[in-house]
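Re: the 107-residue chain
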Amino acid sequence: MFDLTSRCTLNSIITWYQEARKWNQTAIPIIVGTKFDEFIQLPIDLQWTIASQARAYAKALNATLFFSSATYNINVNKIFKFITAKLFDLPWTVERNLTVGEPIIDF
C-alpha cells in the first residue's frame, strides 16, 4: 500500500516488494494506492504523473493496481473480493479502469 498523495511512499514500492520477496516468492503482488479522495484534489498533471508511475511499477512487478479510499469506500470491497478470489482460486472479474481522475484498477 502507498499513499497516493505522497510520492515518497510510491517510490518505496520497489524496495518493499524486494523485501517481501525475500520471505515469500509465491505471494501474489497487489499494489493499493490509498487516499484517492485526497489524490483527486491534486493538480491533474501531478495525478497523471503519479498514476503513470504506479501503473509502471505494477506492470514491472506483475501486480494488480487499485486506487482506493477507505474514507469514501472507493474500491475497498473490490480489493477484498479480489484478494479472496485469488486466495481461494474463485472466479471473479473486475472491470479495468485506466482513466486518470477516476479510481484506477489495472491488471
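Residues 2-11+28-106 form one domain.
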